[in-house]
Every structure is written in structure tokens, then in C-alpha cells.
Amino acid sequence: MKYSDQTRIASLWTPKESIVLHPGDCLRFLKGIPDGTLQLIVTSPPYNIGKAYEKRLKLDNYLTQQAAIIAECVRCLAPSGSICWQVGNYVDNGAIVPLDTILYPIFSSLGLKMRNRIIWHFEHGLHCKNRFSGRYETLCWYTKSDRYVFNLDPVRVPQKYPGKRHFKGPKAGQYSSNPLGKNPGDLWVIPNVKSNHVEKTSHPCQYPVELIERLVLSLANEGDWVFDPFLGVGSTIIAAIRHGRRGAGCELVRDYVSVARRRIEDQLSGRLKTRPMNKPVYDPAAAGNSLSISPWASPQSTGQLTLLEPKKRYVAR
């Protein structure tokens, strides 16, 4: 599917549209979509922790709200389709509650099967004082049936040992690696969108386009519908149309709708800047960044202070 800067951005869904940015409630929007229409549903819902864009609810009420939306998503999902629900932790009086674990029974009760529980690891975020700082969130991938779309080749990553060969058997001496790369696995190291990220907008919990690109390429084919019930600033639609899929999403906050529209327009015109897929994570030491040198280190060492003395060599007598 081809797009241009003249492509229409609709606000209501009809079968003829290719981009839909709906400024309203996702549950009402989903009611107007026929059964089995959407190939991929991917989102990061509110975590119920009191962010500016959400109203904190009692946990049971939050789960009831999520269950209603998930049920409608499943109804609209194609038989070969996938749902990817990306979540973190709910915090209750200092104790964390992993949201993916308490949402799982909802998906399971609707007949969906979990295919992967993907760990999205990043290196920046809140520095905790009373527990270890959280540096990952989960992305749970569910399918509606056993006959689902899964395209591995477009999302392969570089091999660790591309020159490795079979050392025995009928293929001895032949290269053992897939020349297209390896399966990316279920631990994805992708920088999160913080202040210096090229994609940063006003949204406090924006996820990177490359995270969604990997899902779009692997779980939907060209021309398929990709939908995000909690669109935020439009990253899911951007990832979808960038790779020839149709994109739709809902967002209640007007400011985020405006930002999403602008970003989608920039994508259509080729002006949008995003972090490229599979770009290596920035290594400040390798890049020669002076901030990677510890100010309290001795001239002979660039390491940080340690709690234990360096290892000594001991001799038995």
C-alpha cells in the first residue's frame, strides 16, 4: 500500500479508509468495527498509576475497564490476528503488581493463546531508593487461533557469529547461520523515549516507533489493519503506514491527538525523524563521551568506587 502527503487522515472508521485517527473513546469506536476486521492490535494502556492522562481507579475497577476493551478487541480481531498488550507495573502502597500477570486471565478466558512474553529492556528511567530501579516492561503477544501470521525474516537481527560453520555431519564445513540474520528472541533491548530521544514529544510515556515496527512487520501483512485503542501520540499508526499497512487508533487527550496528527503528517511527507530499527544502543564509553569517566577515580583507574577490595592472589601453605 502506497502513501503520500495527500493521503487522507480520517477521524471515523470505514472500510475505504487507510488512516484513522479517532479523537474519542476506544470502546465506542470498536463498536462500529465489524467482526474479524483487525489483523494486529497493539497498545500500551494506562497503568493506573495516576499519570496526567489517566484517572486512578481501584484495581478491580481498572481490570473491569480493561476487560471490556479487550473483549471488543478480540471480537474485532481477524482469525489470523494478534494482540500485543505492552504493560509495566501497578504500584499499590509501595508494592508492585505486574500488570501482565493480572491481565492474563482476561485474555485466556476469551480463548486467546499467549505466544510470547517479551521483555522490553531499556536503560533510563526513575531512580528508586527503596528497591532496584525498574528497567524493563513486558509485551505480551496473544493470537486468536493456531493459524496466525508470523513473518520472521523481516525482523531478523545480525548474527553474533555469522562465520560459524557446522563442524560435523553431512553439512560439515558449511555455514550454519541464516544469512538473513537470527531470530531476535524475547528480550528486546530498545532505548525508551526520554528527553534526548529524537522522537520525544509532550507525552510522558511514549513508546518508540521501532518497538512497534518489529510487531507490524512480523504479525501483519501489507494492507492489513493495525489498531491501537490507546494511541497516545501516534507511534502505532506511524509504524503501520511506514510499512504499507493501514493504521487506526483512538485517543481521548486533545493535545495528544494534535501531536499524533502532526507526526503522522510528517511521516506521510517524509519529514518525521525516528530512531532506525536495529541501530546499536549508544555506548558512551565507546563513543568517547567524557561523562563516562568517573570524577572520583584515580589516574590509574577509570572505574567507579567498589564496596569490596580488589581480588588478591593467595597461596596455599
Fold and architecture overview:
Helices cover 22% and strands 18% of the residues. The protein is of the alpha/beta class. The protein has a single domain (19-154, 184-272), classed as Vaccinia Virus protein VP39 (Rossmann fold). The strands form two sheets. An eight-stranded mixed beta sheet has the order 1-10-9-2-3-7-6-8, with helices on both faces. The chain is built from six helices and ten strands; from the N terminus they run E-H-E-H-E-E-E-H-E-E-E-H-E-H-E-H.
Topology:
Layout: E1 19-22, H1 26-31, E2 38-43, H2 59-76, E3 77-87, E4 89-92, E5 95-98, H3 99-109, E6 113-121, E7 136-143, E8 187-189, H4 209-219, E9 225-228, H5 235-242, E10 246-250, H6 254-269
Parallel strand pairs: 1-10, 2-3, 2-9, 6-8, 9-10
Antiparallel strand pairs: 3-7, 4-5, 6-7
Helix pairs in contact: 2-3, 4-5, 5-6
Report the span from N to C terminus. Answer: 77 Å
List the helices and strands in order.
EHEHEEEHEEEHEHEH
- The CATH architecture term is 3-Layer(aba) Sandwich
Tell me the radius of gyration: 23 Å
- Our count of helices gives 6
Let me know the largest β-sheet. Answer: 8 strands, mixed
Q: Strands of the biggest beta sheet: in what spatial order?
A: 1-10-9-2-3-7-6-8
> CATH homologous superfamily?
Vaccinia Virus protein VP39
Shape: globular
* Helical coverage, percent range: 10-25%
Number of domains: 1
